[in-house]
Structures are given as C-alpha cells and as structure tokens.
Amino acid sequence: MKQILKSVALMCIISLSVACNNANKQQTENTTAKAASSQNLELDGAVGKLKAVLQVPELKDGETCPLVILMHGVFSNKDFPIISKLANELQQKGIASIRFDFNGHGESDGAFKDMTVPLEVKDALAVYQYCKTLDFVSNISLLGHSQGGVVTSLVGGELKDAIKSVVLLAPAAVMEDQTNAGMMMGVKFDPNNIPESISVFNHTVGREYLSTCQTLNIYENAANYEGPVCLIHGRADQVVPYSYSEKYDQIYKNSTLHIMEGETHLFDQDMLTAAHTAVDFIVKQTAN
C-alpha cells in the first residue's frame, strides 16, 4: 500500500513539474521579441502617394516605443545620408522612425515644379495621422533637415503638445527672407512679379513655391509649439546662416541650441556627432 502511495505521489510530482514547464514555456512564447524590421510603405499624401520607410526596433509582444517622423530638405529625399543615419541610430536605441519622400521628391508622386512648403506640411500631417494608428507607438516626435526643418517647425506649431519633442537640423527659415528679397539660393527674380518658374540647381521651381514662401510666417507659427526643441546648426553653413537657428532659439520657450564648429549645411564634416546629439536628445525626451 505504501509503495502504491509513493508511486501516486511521484506521478503527481511529475505531472506538476510538466505543467509548470509548459506554463513557463507558454509565458516565454507570449513574451517572444519581434526582430527589428524595416518596411517600405506607400501612404496617401497631399498630391498623391508618398513612398516611406518604417523602421521598428526589436519589441516584445505588447511592448511600445517612441517614434520619430524624419523629414528631408528640398532637392533631397528620404535616403539623404543624415536622415538614413538617424533612422538606424534611433532603431539601435529602441526608437522607431518613419522617413518619406515629400511630394515632387524621390519616389513620391507629384511634380517638383508644383511642390510648395504648405503642401509638404500636408504631407507631414498625413504621415503623422498614419503613425497615430500604429499600436506600438507610445509617443511621436518630429525631426527635419533644412526645408524639412521648416516643415517640422510648422507642423509642431500646429500639433502643439501632441508632439513629444522636436529636432531641427539647419532649418532653412532663410527661405522667407530670401524670397521676399527676390532670391533663391543665388538665383534672382522679381519678388513683386514672380515668374512662372525659375531654375535652381537644374530643378524647375514654380511660382507657387516662391509666392507661398513669402508669407509662411515661420517663426510666428513655430512658436506655438512649447515642448522641448533641439537645434543643431553648422557655423560654416553657407546655405542657411546659423543665425536662423539662433532666432528659433529665441522664439522657443524650451529649446537647446548646438552650433557645430566647421560644420556645413549637409552635416558632411562630422555627421556622427550631429546624429548622436539629435538621438541623445530624443532618447532623453521620449523616456519621460
């Protein structure tokens, strides 16, 4: 009888052990991390389809992470060196990103001649609305270079506290002053009688672009954003003087300005430092 009881007890112990192992296995399976990924997307923009790339870090089931919308400058695209560099750096830090070609640029729909800053703002807002549908996104930040920096500041001013943080790399607020003075990157025109188009760096720039640049009210609209802002600008920038970032720093309530000695508009002298400055700022702000 005792032998039978011992056998029954042993079987119970074995069954309990198997059940525990199965439970632990099930728990492990439920928390399995999804590998970091990069996905090509096609989104609806202001004038057609926008080509985009969504990069997501390794995440466990149900885990969330911050996301940054990355915006390139004029004559550029989503794979501009510092933009793609930032996407990779953010992913390594556990932060997702989405970068896209504005209308009239890269692989996105639209003619470059018909591109305007207000249309780019609409593109960015469309991308933002898409990002809001992603269940793994905990908060959204914005980052832009050059003209993309201006767009970023305008979108931040419109969305206000819906945006966690903002990073501006050599923001081209000079465009408003230049177009009112009848100039774009060295090409002159009559600001009171704007031609149908001008040629700048072998690109046809349309009248609508030039006329809308004159009335953007960049700083006034950007100042509506009161969250944390990081400004990064090269002292040797010959396209957009760093004084334009100094002006941003004056109008923002919560900004930090980094002037990089010897750095150009393209951040091709010390891209790593520029990228690390931006990423470290975003990591700090989005962790809260």
TrEMBL record:
Record flagged with keyword Isomerase: no
Residues forming coiled coils: none
A GO term, aspect molecular function: carboxylic ester hydrolase activity
Pfam families associated with the record: Hydrolase_4 (PF12146)
Protein name: Lysophospholipase
Signal peptide region: 1-22
Keyword Signal: yes
Keywords of this entry: Signal
Residue intervals of the Serine aminopeptidase S33 domain: 65-178
InterPro entries, per database record: AB_hydrolase_Est10, AB_hydrolase_fold, Hydrolase_4
Top-level lineage group: Bacteria
